[in-house]
Specification:
3 helices, Sulfite Oxidase, Chain A, domain 2, 2 domains, five-stranded mixed beta sheet, mainly beta, Immunoglobulin-like
Length: 306
């Protein structure tokens, strides 16, 4: 587990969101799932269909852990529907390799205990180290986070991280839910947009001391984040922030901080943006809807009064 990072003036940033503080948008309304009776079915266009108990997954496959940021696709810029956790489980490809996916299979149909069935192209799971996770932050998943098993697909929005998973069926694309495919087209993009959230200061905060540590998190995008910049003058000028934590895995947020010395009292708007290693920069003019690949900038209004 990553340690909390001191950023100055007595404040810290925690790279890992505690399970208790992690957002939940839950659709599951059924009875508590009995982990001893539960099993995962893998079938459809495969050579060797399987039914795996939770203990089978834990005992028969290698266990791996990844640090990854999960964001809901409806999260607003600066919103709270995002968090980073350590997810532990079985590499999805280890299980798919054992069942032997037929050459004619095009999608993986995922079924959950909540009755929500979704199908995704098989290639989606070849582009990222997807995980069949049964632990979050070192403990078994809570029911709200998908107990007993959820899919973790780093770098993609949360609707693909299927919870309460009970079946994975290899199918042809024509057999998938047409309405679901239409909805996915509306989303426009499944990979998380390059995004920044200012964690400090808060909206309408009164700043009485100088220097003041501005801090936040940045994540997403097609490439690793190179730097984060902050502005206090309506985006006319920008200063580079200090990256205080880089994740061990490429699909988790970076944490950053900047020591700010306001030149005068009055109202300021604090803005931050991320820039990746390919030079892609977050946009600010709103020409693209979020999520679109580049998220609008997070702005926080404050009052300096010393």
């Amino acid at each position: 587990m990553a340690e909390a990072i001191p950023v100055g003036d007595g404040h810290i940033l925690d790279p890992i969101t505690s399970t208790e503080d992690f957002f939940i948008l839950s659709r599951y309304k059924g009875p508590k799932i009995d982990s001893e009776k539960w099993c995962l079915e893998i079938g459809g266009l495969v050579d060797n269909p399987l039914r795996l108990l939770l203990e089978d997954l834990k005992a028969s496959y290698s266990q791996v852990s990844v640090v990854a940021t999960l964001e809901c696709v409806i999260n607003k810029v600066g919103g709270d529907l995002v968090g980073t956790a350590t997810w532990t489980g079985v590499p999805l490809m280890d299980v798919l390799s054992e069942v032997g996916i037929d050459a004619g299979a095009e999608e993986l149909h995922l079924k959950g205990e909540d009755g929500l069935d979704r199908a995704y192209p098989l290639t989606d799971f070849l582009e990222t180290p997807s995980l069949l996770a049964y632990e979050m932050n070192g403990k078994p998943l809570t029911i709200g986070h998908g107990f007993p098993l959820r899919l973790v697909v780093p770098g993609t929005y949360g609707f693909k991280w299927r919870r309460w998973l009970k079946a994975m069926i290899a199918i042809k694309e024509k057999d998938a839910d047409i309405k679901w495919h239409e909805w996915k087209e509306l989303v426009r993009l499944e990979k998380i947009a390059l995004t920044t959230k200012i964690l400090r200061p808060h909206k309408d905060e009164i700043i009485a001391n100088s220097p003041f540590i501005v801090a936040g998190a940045s994540w997403g995008g097609e490439s690793k984040i190179r730097t984060v910049e902050v502005s206090f003058d309506g985006c006319e000028t920008w200063d580079p922030a200090r990256i205080v934590w880089r994740p061990p895995d490429p699909n988790a947020w970076v944490l950053w901080a900047f020591s700010w010395n306001p030149q005068h009292n009055g109202h300021y708007v604090v803005t931050a943006k991320a820039i990746d290693v390919k030079g892609r920069v977050q946009i600010s003019d709103g020409r693209e809807d979020h999520p679109s690949g580049l998220a609008p900038l997070h702005e926080v209004g404050v009052l300096v009064h010393r």
